[in-house]
Design a protein that fits this description.
alpha/beta; Aspartate Aminotransferase, domain 2; Aspartate Aminotransferase, domain 1; 14 strands; binds pyridoxal-5'-phosphate
Length: 368
């Protein structure tokens, strides 16, 4: 622990890298000799322009993508994307495939249906309480996109490889695992992520959209989606560098610093993935070797970001969470919809934190 900070296993908003928080603190009152805080500055200023452009450039470098991909910052969280995607990309007569792997996928599906769009739920793991990622899915060749949730924050599962969709672009909600590993971006027409898990503070959603998807939405604007409000159109953001209106300036700035940390201190996404694998492996190995704790997700589908587990009884789980708090460990309660325990170990969670957690888990189990 540093400076009275706890080991933070929150699911979101969640832990950010300490060097990033310190840099924010140091520059907070006087940002780069401007004589003011970044949050007091015009979003039309050269200094803020530089923040946005650098964040976009870092995103492209980290994911190894070029200008063919538009990097956008949109407010409304990942939840607004559940609506914007079908609104912008599905016209009359066209359809999309959705895979249902948990709470967030279910919400994305619900939103598309609310808009009366034609979607097919081509696979679901609901039969086993979303404890696995479906395999051998048959996708529709004429779908405009395939929507998946790469990491299921609440259920603790993750896609470890992405499906072959017969060339149909994948759109993935990557809110809880973006930048945790390198990606084969050719497979994706679009990825998006609410920032508050792995990127920065809440209030900004990072949307990365390929040219052909943007074009599809622009073509529809000419014919079928003419009345779509400007704030709900992707090209409003892409044509104005995400600054049609005032963006979440602070959120974008914090994101810039997290990406800088990823590039300059971690050394890129392959190194980040190695760290994440090491942390996850250590925790799952411990849980598997214990006869007290039980992991809830099926082995091949386990998330390296959100480790969900149970204790022998709900009373013990309650006591575990209480004692963890007293021992300087927070955020271990499972999502209210599933109960149990969950340790979120995102990019910013250190090995030291995972080691401390295991040590505590050991002693708790021994004392019972
Ligand atoms: C947290 C989360 C969301 C919701 O994000 P908001 O930014 O609160 O709308 C959506 N999808 C996934 C996978 C999440 O983890």
């Amino acid at each position: 622990m540093t400076e009275n900070r706890i080991f933070n296993f929150n699911a979101g908003p969640s832990a950010l890298p300490l060097p990033v928080l310190k840099e924010i603190q140091e520059s907070f009152l006087n940002y780069k000799n401007s004589g003011m805080s970044l949050i007091e500055m015009s979003h039309r200023s050269a200094q803020f322009d530089e923040v946005v452009n650098d964040t976009v450039a870092r995103t492209r470098r980290l994911l190894n993508i070029d200008e063919k991909y538009h990097v956008l910052f949109i407010q409304g969280g990942a939840s607004l994307q559940f609506a914007m995607i079908p609104m912008n990309l599905l016209g009359v007569g066209s359809s999309a495939d959705y895979v249902n792997t948990g709470t967030w996928s279910t919400k994305a599906i619900k939103e598309a249906k609310l808009l009366e769009k034609k979607i097919n739920v081509v696979a679901s793991s609901e039969d086993k309480n979303f404890s696995y990622i479906p395999q051998n899915i048959k996708f529709n060749k004429d779908a405009k996109y395939v929507h998946i949730t790469s990491n299921n924050t609440i259920k603790g599962t993750q896609w470890h490889s992405f499906p072959d969709t017969n060339g149909v672009p994948i759109i993935s909600d990557m809110s809880s695992d973006i930048f945790s590993r390198p990606l084969e971006m050719e497979k994706f027409g679009m990825i998006y992520a609410g920032a508050q898990k792995n990127i920065g503070p809440a209030g900004v959603c990072l949307v990365i959209m390929r040219d052909d998807m943007l074009k599809l939405s622009e073509d529809l604007l000419q014919s079928e989606t003419k009345t779509l409000p400007n704030m709900l159109r992707y090209n409003t953001y892409s044509s104005q560098n995400s600054m049609y209106n005032t963006p979440n300036c602070f959120g974008i700035y914090a994101t810039q610093l997290v990406l800088k940390w990823l590039e300059e201190e971690v050394g890129g996404l392959a190194k980040m993935e190695a760290r994440n694998q090491e942390k996850g492996q250590m925790l799952y190995d411990f849980i598997d070797g214990s006869n007290f704790y039980r992991a809830t997700a099926e082995k091949e589908s386990r998330s390296l970001m959100n480790v969900t587990f149970r204790l022998p009884s709900e009373e013990l789980e309650k006591e575990f969470i209480g004692q963890a708090t007293k021992n300087g460990m927070g955020g271990l309660k499972g999502h209210r919809s599933v109960g149990g325990c969950r340790a979120s170990i995102y990019n910013a969670t250190t090995m030291e934190a995972v080691e401390a957690l295991i040590k505590f888990m050991k002693s708790f189990a021994t004392g019972k």
